[in-house]
Amino acid sequence: MKQSLGAKTLMFPTPVLMIGSYDKNGKPNLMNAAWGGICCSEPPCVTVSVRKSRHTYDAIVERKAFTVGIASEPWIKQADYVGIVSGKDADKFAASGLTPVRSELVDAPYAEEFPVVLECRLLHTLEIGVHTQFIGEILDVKMDAALFGDDGLPDITKIRPLIYDVSRREYRGVGPLLGKAFSVGKDLA
């Protein structure tokens, strides 16, 4: 029998997303966000939810753009750090040793070290309680060339993305292949 936990923000897993933006002074900033994910296929869109009190909130509203970097295992300390301090108080790029790169397509930076980045223009904004949901149209996805598999597709085992366990407040890695999607369940059809 299942036990009730009440209304909570539990989803397993959640991503570890590095939201890049420029503040009003043009300073590059990164924010660690778990409330986000793909939300539309056509046009390709991603969503991220940010509290109004966060430094990133004003930057996205003002610049109408953001990037979404995929944090990976080798950069766990830097990914955690950008979620601990505020861009109002610190230069997160300088303190973490990450390299800011200006997007060629949108008015936002990303960290060179994170292996995958989505460049997004702000498409919609939705106020939801204490968070605002920003929907960004993905104009381009950039990925390190070494992270493609022999089949020419991105290889998740090479990317090694971080995932977040919201209940325990822990970072985890991706596990082994369990089955091929849209295939393993065919015998039940």
Automatic annotation (TrEMBL):
It holds the Pfam family Flavin_Reduct. Residues 9-164 form the Flavin reductase like domain. It comes from the Bacteria. Keywords: Flavoprotein. Its cofactor is FMN. Belongs to the flavoredoxin family. This is Flavin reductase domain protein, FMN-binding protein. It comes from Pelobacter propionicus (strain DSM 2379 / NBRC 103807 / OttBd1).
